[in-house]
Amino acid sequence: xxxxxxxxxxxxxxEAETVTLSCTYDTSxxxxxxxxxxxxxxxxxxxxxxxxxxxxxxxxxxxxxxxxQKAAKSFSLKISDSQLGDAAMYFCAYRSEGETSGSRxxxxxxxxxxxxx
Amino acid sequence: DAGVIQSPRxxxxxxGQEVTLRCKPISGHNSLFWYRQTMMRGLELLIYFNNNVPIxxxxxxxxxxxxxxxxxxxxxxxxxxxEPRDSAVYFCASSLITGTPLHFGNxxxxxxx
Lengths: 117, 113
Known about the structure:
The structure holds 2 protein chains of 2 kinds. In chain A, 0% of the residues lie in helices and 52% in strands. By secondary structure, chain A is mostly beta strands. In chain A, strands 2, 5, 6, 10, 11 and 12 form a 6-stranded mixed β-sheet that branches. In chain A, strands 3-9-8-7 form a 4-stranded antiparallel β-sheet, with no helix packed on it. The mean pLDDT of chain A is 93. Chain B has strands at 5-7, 10-13, 19-24, 31-38, 42-50, 53-56, 65-71, 74-79, 88-95, 103-104, 108-112. By secondary structure, chain B is mainly beta. The relative contact order of chain B is 0.34. Helices cover 0% and strands 55% of the residues of chain B. The mean pLDDT of chain B is 94. In chain B, strand 9 and strand 10 (103-104) form a beta hairpin. The chains are: A mainly beta, B mainly beta. The interface between A and B is medium-sized, with 21 and 22 residues.
C-alpha cells in the first residue's frame, strides 16, 4: 500500500518570505500523480498544485512550485512571497493509476503553516 | 459549475440515532469518494465508487456504516446507530477520471452526543 509522510507537523514563515514544506511517499508503482491541497480554517479542501510522475519538469502555479524527486520519492512544496492568506493546513497526496490500487487518493498527515505579519 | 454539494453542513445528533449524509458530485464526474477527517486519524478514505459501483469499502469502520450511490448525481453515507466516536468531518469528493484531482465538497461536521 502507498504511504505519504509529512515530517513537519508545523511550520511558520514571515510574510513575503519563502517556505518549503516536505513530503515523501512510498510506492512500487511507476505511474502516479501527486498533489498538494490546502485546508484553511473554513475547512474547504483546495487544490494547490499537481504533478504527474512521468513528467520531469517541476510543476508551478504562480507563487507555488514543487521540487519533485522521483528516485528519492520526494515531493516538496515551495511557497514564495508568502501572504497571510496562505496560512492553512497543507496536505500532500498521492493518487495511483495501478489497477490493484484503483484511483484512491492517499493523504499525508498535514503541515500547519502559520504566516507571521 | 456548482462544485460538489454536501448536506447538511452541520449535524448534531444523540447516540443511537440514524444519521444520513448526502452528496451531489460534479456533473460528468464518474468517481465519488467519502472521506472522514479527525484530529487523531487525519483524512481517511471510507469508500469510493466508479460509475456508481462501490470499488473499495475497506475503509468503512464497521457494519454501522453504509454508503449508496443510486445514480450518477447522488450518494449517501448512513450511520446507524451513531456513536460519539463517529464525531468527525465527513467529506465527499468527485473526479472525472483516474489521475485527475479530486474536487471536495465543504464537508459535514457531525457531532454525536
